[in-house]
Write a structure and sequence with these properties.
The chain folds into 2 domains: 138 residues, Arc Repressor Mutant, subunit A (Orthogonal Bundle); 75 residues, Herpes Virus-1 (2-Layer Sandwich). The chain is elongated and about 100 Å long. It has 10 helices and 8 strands. It is an alpha+beta fold. A hairpin with a 4-residue loop joins strand 6 and strand 7. InterPro entries: TFE (IPR039997), TFIIE/TFIIEa_HTH (IPR017919), TFIIE_asu (IPR002853), TFIIEa/SarR/Rpc3_HTH_dom (IPR024550), Znf_RING/FYVE/PHD (IPR013083).
């Protein structure tokens, strides 16, 4: 089923992830791009009222996490003959969903691996020299004459370790992880069931987007107020 607008499950998931794991700058950027779909850099900075250096630093982070896609558009000014480059950003919903699933699954697999390692770790240790032994070495340290476990390194007494506590602790962490992140997995599954059209996955830079970018570049600090006025007018007309 193709959607004409970004489904709520996508919006809910990306907001939940951003609010949970990212900074306030990232939250602000994503919130604006959810609303406007695609924007040029100058307009975004104007709307967010953020320093350009801070903005670009936040954008690099979001792009590296495959949440934001950057598109460059070159436009020639036929009056001056000069070519200007405009940077546009939009949320890459598909790569975002895949990246989130991969990261969450990696965390879960690491917790499962830690639990397995705890069960396979040394279960015996020498009271004299501290050397550790695993289950597979039981035949080497068992003294058949005394029925005791003896260290083949120093001859000291070997006793069983009490490692139940860290194992229980790790199981508790894994259980909490499954409980806390289950809603994310459910939202991801819901998103995977909905197919997005190309205009939502990779929105086209329209003439309106380009003209706004040109205006924002030439009129620093004015784009935000004009966009907000346009939004208010649009809301009023839709309520009539």
């Amino acid at each position: 089923m193709l959607e004409s607008a970004v489904p709520n499950c996508y919006i809910t998931l990306i907001k939940s992830i951003i609010y949970t794991f990212y900074s306030s700058s990232h939250v602000a950027i994503i919130s604006v791009l959810i609303y406007y779909s695609i924007l040029d850099e100058d307009t975004l900075i104007d709307l967010l009222q953020i320093d350009k250096k801070q903005f670009r630093s936040a954008m690099i982070f979001l792009r590296n996490d495959r949440i934001i896609k950057q598109t460059l558009r070159k436009e020639k000014d036929f009056t001056t003959g000069l070519t200007s480059t405009y940077i546009f950003y939009h949320i890459n919903y598909y790569t975002f969903i895949n990246a989130v699933y991969f990261k969450l699954d990696k965390i879960r697999k690491n917790l499962v691996k830690d639990e397995k390692n705890l069960t396979l770790n040394a279960v015996f240790s020498c009271q004299n020299c501290g050397k550790s032994f695993g289950d597979v070495e039981i035949g080497q340290i068992l003294n058949m004459d005394t029925d005791e476990l003896t260290c083949y390194n120093c001859g000291g007494l070997v006793i069983e370790n009490d490692h139940d506590q860290p194992l229980k602790s790790n199981k508790c962490i894994l259980s909490k992880y499954n409980e806390q992140f289950e809603p994310f997995y459910k939202m991801i599954e819901e998103c995977y069931e909905i197919e997005l059209p190309i205009n939502l996955i990779d929105p086209e830079i329209s003439e309106e987007h380009l003209q706004r970018a040109i205006f924002s570049r030439a009129n620093q600090g004015q784009a935000a107020s004009i966009i907000r006025k346009q939004n208010k007018m649009s809301e009023k007309s839709s309520n009539l």
